[in-house]
Amino acid sequence: MSTVLVTGGSRGIGRAICLAFAKAGHDVAFCYAKDEEGAAETARLLSKTGAGVQAFRCDVADENAVREMFSGIFNLEVLVNNAGISRFGLIQDTALSDWDRLFAVNAGGAFLCTREAVPKFLRRGGGCIVNISSVWGLAGGACEAAYSASKAALIGFTKAAAKELAPANIRVNCVAAGMISTKMNDRLSETERAAFTEQLCIPREGSAEEVAKAVLFLAKSGYVTGEVLRVDGGAAL
């Protein structure tokens, strides 16, 4: 049975992706940075599906930690670079350290994990990578300049990697998620969330499960690479 690795799998979109692949018949490895309780719950839910489960505590911005994690993963078929952090604030109030940390996790983490995954895919004869970006990586978000820029970088990385890795039968795609009902948006009030969603073509928040379905589609679609699939209710239109 092939293994899928999902970064940032302790909750929200990451957990939903883990469960989607487990139900599709894959063994699942996932990592988390701090949330021990959430990771234990993800592992419990995965075990109920009958899938093989591996959980790693790993900061994807830490090169050595990423390398150590990958040394314990075998038969890797799919990598989902989902781990991400956000920051809300004006440009003039954003510290360089905050900017650097967002890039280190949101873009750098995907690079480090991809770099470790490629040799495994080459030995296997192919593989698939799905990166989780954001609609703000396409359109930009006011008061989220660092987050938007890091997610835009992830989209650029997706396209470049798709071209570079295609001869090795490795596909690379991206999901640009919109307003998804997760803890990352807890800083917004109900009024603020309603004001955003009422402008959408599909006037509601999306679910983590809907993002997971898009990831599974890209992983199973053998003639799709370099694609940025928006799951955003029409936010980018």
Plain-language structure description:
It is built from eight helices and seven strands; from the N terminus they run βαβαβαβαβααβααβ. The chain is 46% helix and 17% strand. The protein has a seven-stranded parallel sheet, with helices on both faces. It is an alpha/beta fold. α1 (12-23) packs across α8 and α3 runs parallel beside α4 (96-124).
Key structural traits:
237 residues; alpha/beta; Rossmann fold; 17% strand; globular
Gap between N and C termini, in Å? Answer: 40 Å
| β-strand number | 7
Order the strands across the largest sheet as they lie in space.
Answer: 3-2-1-4-5-6-7
Number of domains: 1
Please tally the helical runs, counting DSSP H or I stretches of 4 or more residues.
8
The CATH superfamily label reads: NAD(P)-binding Rossmann-like Domain
Indicate the low-confidence ranges by residue numbers. none
Task: Describe this structure in a few short sentences.
The protein is of the alpha/beta class.
Write the topology of this structure.
Layout: E1 3-6, H1 12-23, E2 27-32, H2 36-48, E3 53-57, H3 63-71, E4 76-81, H4 96-124, E5 127-134, H5 136-139, H6 145-165, E6 170-177, H7 190-197, H8 208-220, E7 228-231
Helix pairs in contact: 1-8, 3-4, 4-6
